[in-house]
């Protein structure tokens, strides 16, 4: 199962948009100078995930890719009418979070234009409330905002080795909608606590973290069923090697190997293998 499977791709795409994308709908059609405003769907990818960005664009068959200014990121943008209609059909009924409100505004905009464009009206479906383990939505969301972590100290007399998965999200969207219900649902699914962090910052966040063998295995089982598609797939595979040491109870004796694995993950990764996208 992967991007070539429509059932997987559509839910994955929805999670990706809800995690690191935006749905922008203009409040008016023209500027004071008469310039037309258009709705826009965008997904942001870190530079290292450029092959994933290209693959998604190819599957969609529309959209443009641009380098984000002063940032190590690429942006996939969809703003033509046909492309927006097609993406709405792909994600309709699969959204789970507060970006659903923007999705409804987008459908309303497209439906107003439908007669002159000779398109059928889009009937918006409700928020998706099926269990997370029934589709790949959470994989897309993790692709956007998840992080696989290994902590291992080389210096202390009693080095602590730990393994965790972390998911962080701003408490409110750009449009002032709370993400609490969505993050709480994910934390309940993974049987972990949902915590408030960065409360003194401009953009406070929610964070959930797996740290026990049981909850880490939940993530492993889910992502083996609905695999990641970007560079996080490689981090996940390395993370699973360490998880197996914990499962076998051999993590202390494999400390040197664990430290070596950690040294080549996440921001420290320099070698990328994209065979999983084929």
Write down how many β-strands occur, each being a DSSP E stretch of 2 or more residues: 8
Shape: elongated
Measured as a percent range, the helix fraction is 40-55%
Fold-level CATH name of the largest domain:
Endonuclease I-creI
GO cellular component, one term: mitochondrion
Domain Homing endonuclease LAGLIDADG: 13-107, 138-242
Function: Mitochondrial DNA endonuclease involved in intron homing.
GO molecular function: endonuclease activity
Task: Please characterize this protein's 3D structure.
The chain is α+β, with helices and mostly antiparallel strands and 278 residues long. The protein folds into two domains: 6-117, Roll (Endonuclease I-creI), CATH 3.10.28.10; 136-277, Endonuclease I-creI. 41% of the residues lie in helices and 17% in strands. The chain is built from nine helices and eight strands. It has a four-stranded antiparallel β-sheet. A four-stranded antiparallel β-sheet has the order 5-6-8-7. Strand 3 (64-67) and strand 4 form a beta hairpin. Helix 1 runs parallel beside helix 5 and helix 3 packs across helix 4 (100-117). The model has no long low-confidence stretch (mean pLDDT 93). GO terms for molecular function: endonuclease activity. Keywords: Mitochondrion. Residues 13-107, 138-242 form the Homing endonuclease LAGLIDADG domain. InterPro entries: Homing_endonucl (IPR027434), LAGLIDADG_dom (IPR004860), LAGLIDADG_Endonuclease (IPR051289). Mitochondrial DNA endonuclease involved in intron homing.
């Amino acid at each position: 199962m992967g991007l070539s499977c429509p059932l997987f791709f559509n839910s994955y795409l929805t999670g990706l948009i809800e995690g690191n994308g935006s749905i922008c709908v203009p409040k008016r059609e023209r500027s004071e100078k008469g310039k037309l405003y258009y709705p826009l769907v965008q997904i942001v990818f870190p530079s290292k995930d450029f092959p994933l960005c290209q693959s998604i664009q190819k599957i969609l068959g529309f959209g443009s890719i641009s380098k984000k200014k002063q940032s190590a990121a690429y942006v996939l943008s969809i703003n033509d009418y046909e492309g927006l209609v097609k993406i709405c059909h792909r994600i309709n009924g699969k959204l789970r979070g507060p970006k659903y409100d923007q999705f409804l505004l987008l459908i309303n905009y497209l439906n107003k234009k439908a007669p002159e464009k000779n398109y059928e009206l889009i009937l918006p479906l409700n928020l998706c409330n099926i269990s997370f383990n029934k589709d790949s939505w959470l994989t897309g969301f993790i692709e956007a905002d998840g992080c696989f972590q290994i902590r291992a100290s080389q210096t202390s007399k009693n080095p602590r080795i730990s393994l965790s998965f972390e998911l962080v999200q701003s408490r409110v969207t750009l449009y002032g909608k709370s993400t609490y219900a969505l993050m709480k649902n994910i934390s309940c699914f993974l049987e972990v606590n949902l915590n408030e962090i960065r409360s003194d910052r401009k953009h406070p966040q929610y964070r959930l973290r797996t740290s026990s063998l049981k909850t880490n295995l939940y993530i492993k089982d889910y992502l083996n069923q609905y695999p990641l598609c970007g560079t996080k797939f490689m981090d996940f595979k390395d993370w699973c090697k360490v998880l197996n040491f914990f499962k076998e109870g051999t993590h202390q004796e494999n400390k040197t190997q664990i430290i070596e694995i950690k040294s080549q993950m996440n921001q420290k990764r320099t070698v990328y293998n994209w065979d999983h996208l084929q």
